[in-house]
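== Polypeptide entry ==
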Amino acid sequence: MSTATIDATKMELTACRVSFGPLGTEVDLGGTLGSVKMVWKYMKSDIMADQTGKSPLDKSVSGFMCDVEFEIAQVKDKTLWAIAFPNAALVPGTGANVGKNKMVFKSNIGDKDLSHAKSLVLHPLSMLDADKSMDYNFPLAVGTAESEIVMGHDKQQMLKIKMTCYPDATGVYCTVGDPSLT
């Protein structure tokens, strides 16, 4: 019989803090429900030759994508809606309605994602705030503007936010670990 080498100190079970905003000034988005899901994918294209028919000889990287998905518990905070729906407008209340916001949804044809993209940081709550060794840093992330809220008598409401990540000026989509390391 054989066994595996297991090191429980290298395993993790933790929720995370989700922060979003201009790089270096990200703001905590509050409570999440469910889990935070990150998806990375290198797209690959087949390298082919007529002489081998439809059998690939190799694969070559032809693209990359990175998405993050989470559910926000604080559905009454419409500033969070503006993150999920960056193409909609957050209208702040004035006068007697200060603190009361509304979201206005229009088609906004031609509105570009990058104009709304900001830094997204996921920090495991099992780590001290100063320990960024397991942080997930996405320099340019933007809400995909697709969500749902389910209302019912037996389940708490949540606002699903799915974000697409774009490369920064250096081509980086994401880093995992302390961003100060060079």
Notes: The CA atoms of residues 33 and 154 lie 15 Å apart. The chain has a mean pLDDT of 93. Helices lie at 78-84.
